[in-house]
Amino acid sequence: MFLDELEKYVPILARKRKALVTIDDYGYTFYDKWDAEKKSFLKKFNYYPRVTDCYKGLPDDVYLMHLDYAVKEYTKENDVSMAWSASMSPIEYEMLCAEILNDNGWKARTTSASGDQGVDVIAENGDVCVAIQCKLYTSPVGNKAVQEVIAGMTYWGATVGAVVTNAQYTRSARELAKVHDIYLLHHDDLPELTSILDK
């Protein structure tokens, strides 16, 4: 049966949904990336041979509805918090950074629904607004990331700028960040962001 075959993929789909459903500055929720992911999954899943006679010939919307239901039910009963993984996508990495901040007293969201303008995550805590550029890299992060967050701070009206990565930073990135008071962080630093900014 379709739902039985789908079951082993539901945890992955739940994490994908969490990463791809975004909220913009005005509180509107955008599902377009998640809708595209569902359709892409069904094509790869090749579900037609796996369904019982009662499912045959049904429009794709019915399968999408069942998929959504299975993911929502799984999410109700399971923790779908993201964990660091070397195989995660850049969007998932941005989502991870926002989630860590939300779990530690910040109000954080990804900016992908609004067009990032050099900023991937906006985090607010009281009067402090931090513009964050997230870089999932296998090599040291250079000047460009620092330049992007400097420009993005003006666009977003942020009071603080930061770059967050899983990697290291080049010497030139550190020098530029020092001149412009940009924080260069590892994602493991995010739980302590409040105390880092207070130093």
TrEMBL record:
<dbReference type="InterPro" id="IPR011856">
    <property type="entry name" value="tRNA_endonuc-like_dom_sf"/>
</dbReference>
<dbReference type="InterPro" id="IPR011335">
    <property type="entry name" value="Restrct_endonuc-II-like"/>
</dbReference>
<dbReference type="InterPro" id="IPR007560">
    <property type="entry name" value="Restrct_endonuc_IV_Mrr"/>
</dbReference>
<keyword id="KW-0378">Hydrolase</keyword>
<keyword id="KW-0540">Nuclease</keyword>
<dbReference type="Pfam" id="PF04471">
    <property type="entry name" value="Mrr_cat"/>
</dbReference>
<keyword id="KW-0255">Endonuclease</keyword>
<dbReference type="InterPro" id="IPR052906">
    <property type="entry name" value="Type_IV_Methyl-Rstrct_Enzyme"/>
</dbReference>
<dbReference type="GO" id="GO:0015666">
    <property type="term" value="F:restriction endodeoxyribonuclease activity"/>
</dbReference>
<dbReference type="GO" id="GO:0009307">
    <property type="term" value="P:DNA restriction-modification system"/>
</dbReference>
<feature type="domain" description="Restriction endonuclease type IV Mrr">
    <location>
        <begin position="87"/>
        <end position="193"/>
    </location>
</feature>
<dbReference type="GO" id="GO:0003677">
    <property type="term" value="F:DNA binding"/>
</dbReference>
<protein>
    <submittedName>
        <fullName>Restriction endonuclease</fullName>
    </submittedName>
</protein>
